[in-house]
Design brief:
Elements: H1 2-12, H2 34-55
InterPro entries: Ribosomal_Su5_D2-typ_SF, Ribsml_uS5_D2-typ_fold_subgr, RNase_P
Keywords: Endonuclease, Hydrolase, Nuclease, RNA-binding, tRNA processing
GO molecular function, one term: tRNA binding
Length: 56
């Protein structure tokens, strides 16, 4: 799980200028395959950036 999160963050970090992010997983995430986890992270990254842009 950590490896997937780190890689996803690394590939998207250009969108996260001056943002600190803490990632917590929910129970059951280990039941998902890597493709599902990756897609969920992509959606979350987009949501984080959208929220940050609204506040700045």
């Amino acid at each position: 799980m950590k490896r997937i999160i780190r890689e996803s963050f690394r590939q998207n970090q250009s969108a996260f200028f001056n943002i600190d992010i803490v990632v917590l997983s929910r129970p059951g995430v280990d039941q998902r395959d890597n493709t599902q986890i990756w897609a969920a992270l992509e959606r979350h990254w987009l949501a984080v950036v959208a929220q940050w842009q609204q506040k700045s």
